[in-house]
Amino acid sequence: MAGVSFETNPGKYNLELTGTSNTKTSPVTFTRTFMVGRAKYPKIRVQLAVEKKFTEPDPEQQKQIAEGVKTKQDYLSRVTPKREWDGKFGAPVEASTSDVYGSQRIFNGVAQRPHFGLDYRVHTGTPVAAMNDGTILLARFLYFEGNCVVIDHGQGLLTLYFHLSELKVKEGDPVKRGEIIGLSGGTGRATGPHLHVAVRWEGTYLDPARLLQMSLP
Asked: Is the dihedral of CA 75, 118, 82, 28 positive or negative?
């Protein structure tokens, strides 16, 4: 299982795999070539203005932002060797989507970084379910993300759930697919209630919609 980052330039790449064999003393290595195509992503001008503290933060708010960045650097870079996910990933809510992976939002006339997640149209208080088995890596408030939960599914695979109105789990808790981890809301940088879900694979944000389509063992 592997993923290609949003920033990867289109072109031809080699994927090299190396492993060990019970019958050979030397490593087993083989290479496959694959193509990365150019994708088109929408630009979305957000008509509802967000609070100025999210587009022009003052020094105290910048300090809170820096603390959030450090927290994410410390936690989201962790890779646990044991696989915890089991089979296909499920949607966290039963709702239509309002924004897709790769789009670029323009808040208050200012272009933001690309949207590395999938947004669901849900009202505040909608139960949010774990997409698969794992361990709660983060369950706390961050400046932009609001109340957020990050589930470590093992081997560098994480799912992230932002803007929650309430947390139903704590860090270190084991969870099963379908277990309620929080309630949706509009905390952090959000123009209204919704659920933002992201997928991170060994440090790279991938399209959650693709993961939901995959049949995994």
From this structure: negative
